[in-house]
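User: Can you write out an input/output pair for a complex, sequences first and structure second?

Assistant: Here is one pair. Inputs:
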Amino acid sequence: MTSETYLRTIWPSFQLLLAALVLAALLSFSPAAAQVDLTKRELNVPATLVAESQQVQAGQSVTLAFVMNPKPTWHGYWENPGDAGIGMSFDWKLPDGVTAGKAQYPVPDTLLISGIMNYIYKGDYAVLVNLVVSEKVKPGPLPISVKSEWLACTDEVCVPEQDELSINLQVVGPDAAVSLNNAFNAYREALPRQLGSAATFTVKDDLFRLSVPFPANIDIEKPYFFIKEDGIVDYAAPQKVNRDGDTLIIETAARGDALQNISGVVKIGPSSGFSVKAASGDVEMSGTPFIGSDDGGNFTGGGDQSNASLLFIALGGAIVGGLLLNLMPCVFPILSLKAISLAKAGGEEAVVRRDALAYTAGVVVVATALGGLLLALRASGAAVGWAFQLQDPKIIFVLLALVIAIGFNLAGLFELPNVNFGNKLAEKDGAAGSFWTGALAAFVATPCTGPFMAAALGATIVLPPIAALIIFAGLGVGLALPFLLIAFVPAIRNRLPKPGAWLDSFRKIMAIPMFLTAIGLIWLLGRQIGTDALGLSLIFLLLITLILWWFGGGQMKGLSRGTWATGALTAAIIGGVLLLPGAEAMDNQKVASASSATLPSEPFSEERLSELRASNQPIFAYFTADWCITCKANEAAAVQRQETADAFAEANVAVLMGDWTRPDPVISKFLEKHGRAGVPLYLYYAPGEEPVILPQILTVGTLTDLVT
Amino acid sequence: MFYKAALTSIAAVATIGMAMPLAAAQKTGAIAQDFKLTDMYGKTVQLSSFRGKTVVMEWHNPGCPFVVKHYDSGNMQKTQAAARKQGVVWLTINSGAQGKQGYMKGPEAQKLTKDQGMNSNHYLLDAKGVVGKAYAAKTTPHMYIINASGKLVYQGGIDDKPTANKADIKGARNHVTAALTELKAGKSVSVAQSRPYGCSVKYAS
């Protein structure tokens, strides 16, 4: 037998053997592979089970977190997943005497893919569950295990995932120390806070409407209602939002009306929201539409068409708004004098046009730059609105120095070599001068922009950045429009009054609106930093004015004091900015205003509470938030009343106030301990006794009865 | 030549006109929207041609774990076989767009239906998602039942255990089997609507 024939004979049987081997391998491997699939394979949305404390006292509860870390492009689901997807499930194995509460989910995001709405989490998130350990449980180890299932999806595919998670806790005696994991503060902050007031909903003519009590003065961004119950609303339908005084009304397409009570989360910012319960009732779409709500949420795609029309409307609004800005006290002086100076140069058409274009460029560049800065700040997560620059005392101070400088310049205290408001009419300003005048006008105009530009600028928040920048540029074009008209339409230019001796008087009169603007800014600054700090700031402003005067004096004598003046000015402005109080002092300012209230209070802290308890002083503790209407109503009707304050003062009651306007983990935990997910909460501690939880609707009588 | 172009554009306008009402979901109890789709053999299938018979529609995506749950376990095939035995027409519809998970051309679908032993009368290809969107099909599987007079009598999930776990099939209420049994007995469908569960339908846009 040659090797060749041997091979030929053996080959078929070899093939058979190989096939059998492969088959056997497949048979034996596939169940194993399937098992690996479910348990050992790397998860796309892996979960970790963490406890807030390893030790728990019998009769107390401990919070567990399922910390979910989706891989990039993957997401997990909210308890109501929306049109598709699935929420999490938990199958607990708990020792006797331990019970698990309902899972608490953070505020979700929307993800609309091809008309299918998903309620999801893109980044890391934590689902919290409270375990209650009964008093009967003996000290010792407490093994907790749970089998959880969830759905992990990308925009394209979905994978059901599950994991058996376990953790060993320790039951300790009532005196043992319990150390807390600080990460839970952040987990709690991401949860929706419970809105104290009840909401109402209605389903009529295929429309779902929800009315939520919500203060008119609280800013909201991209509001969206996530409903927990299925079958009531069309998830993918856009939601319209109106604000009518202290009511937020949300309207969307309905699917059914089978329920009397619904619940859900009203999202009002990138990661903040309120959980609401609503009962069936009448809801009308009253009030005014909230601009920008039609885009629905964070990750929505599409909707370009509505955005395009929104862009045109907003752009129109911005141009008209910019035009109106010319009449504002902060801008009119600059505008009017500049206009007349342009008219004077009337002889040379080309020069006039060049100056007008340079001015326009200056205005547009500054308006767009401010807009770009706003968008960048927003993108970095700061909660800022237009005129955001006025939220920072440093910028107000600089703006104030600028406005005062312009005011004194108009009044004739000094002259500036480059930025020219029409004083040296015989000279030609040059394109650079016009550009800087425009830039200055746009910057100084911002304090006056806010109120009537709000709608158009609100649109910039929902539009893509490029479109938003176009709107800011539109604002600038509007502001520069009168100049363009004067420069390019000779008929208008010819109707402007001819410059003469009256112009000098006019210029001085125009200092008045400038100083009015300065007074407005001083008031604003005073509100932010308090009168003490304001006094110091005003001294610096005086210093700046004196430097300018000295500089102006030098100019009149033909001396060049430019370098010295610039240096001294810079030093004065920097000094003024540095001496402004920090954020801490501004908080103190807020506290100071709390202590000047009818019923003065101290800020709440657990330490202060136990200190006061130890001193056997009666304590009234109340928890409030600016967005809580019930709280504010109670404060106006019962807490901040002279009768209450007198009665409390007589009985030497200490008052503690917890402000939950911003999420505060200490207060959150304290509320939770008292069985409340939200404010208001009113507690009265009689010396040496257990605290009494007062009703959520207070009267003066309820409070005064406590101490009499 | 001009005549032909004009005709084409009229046809295009007519198609858009027809497509417009398709955008809304179908109401349970109302006449179900008629449609024409091409099946995996290239044959045109029209819903209204089955008038007089009960029709089940099943939205399908072979890559979706929730669909896999019901096919690997044989649950869907069994439900299909029982339905056809009662003279019900079963239409399996794939609205997955080209390039998305579960998209198939005719020959691939032929192979898959054979390999998995599917018992549906027609496997329909809806890569543009026109019919899927007309019925507001959100998930795979998503089930619809149309009675002999053309009314939509059920829409929702295949059963009431929204998981991807085969072990949950036992003990779940199969809404389709239950509804077909009720229809056969001349009764109205007791659960006419339920929450569909599964992966989202992978529409083109």
